[in-house]
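Re: beginner question about structure tokens

> Can someone show what the tokenized structure looks like for a real chain? I only ever see the sequence side.

Sure, here's an example I had lying around. Input first:
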Amino acid sequence: MEGVSAVLAPPRVARVPRSPGAGRGSWGSAAKAAVAGLAAFGLGNVAQSTIIRAVHGNRSELEWLSDAVISTAVAGIAFLWLHLKASRLRVLALERDQIAVDEQLRLAAEIQRNLLPPIPKATPGFRWAARMVPAGRIGGDFYDFLPLRDGTVLAILGDVSGKGIAAALLLSSLKTLFRTIARETTDPAAVAERISAALHGEYGGLPYVTAIVARFEPAGRRIGYVNAGHPSGYVLREGRLSAELASGGLPLGLLPGARYTRSDVAIQPGDVGVLVTDGVTEALETGPVTLSQALRAAVGVSLAPADLCDELLRAAAAGTGPAGAGDWQDDRTALVFTVEPAA
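And the corresponding structure tokens:
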């Protein structure tokens, strides 16, 4: 596994520097206010003497009261003004920091989109489409797609545990890891075992990845796959469920020494297959239609793979489950394929 785990080191995120004004406390403002108060006290004495002479008052009776009132008022006004100025500086510093963070998130989202490979419309024996809609600026869903020289296709659809930047950072490592292992083996069980061992060796079980690793073989009319703790995939034939891609093993990287079993599904021209993440299945859990109903309805009108992806995501957006439209908490991804007649 030497060399494989080296690709797991996540990229470092630059720390946003704090603005000089952001760390100033209220002590500087208090000192300035005290100085302003002393100056005001001196001016107050001058004003006080003038007023007493003008009204012919008793200096000994009015002096202490006027001193206290004038000094307190002027010092309070000076303190409030200086404190407001310091607060404005802190707000401006926070705004600058937020702009820097937003820019980093924008760049991270752009990098994540670039990690997703272009899905060809067709390969020998198959037509393809994929869509991912993150719940936030960046997401934890991932897919990769490798056409091989012998005409087969190796694909992975995964969902990293957790959310936000921590989950997103793992995705770049996962893509590199998947492609590195695929140079040595394309057996789904072997790929899953090596990814799982590398992830657990690096992260110790958290985060982990649920995934389906599948090898599509047009010549043999079959799909060999491993489901690593992921929602089931479906193959439909003439609008009815033909096969469920459900078996395989534990999520990748969850436990040391995990072993995976490859399963095979027979396919034929006209079949439609769908792989999704749990953001779709949970949204449809208690929605107006279930995933299988949405699939059967879509297949019944012979939608193209790209249209079927869009229809599934629209149905998920209308769902009322834990990840439905009213409480969207997870990314939603769909990968759809149709089996075509051999060339």
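Each token stands for a local structural state, so reading them left to right follows the chain. DSSP finds seven helices and twelve strands in the chain.
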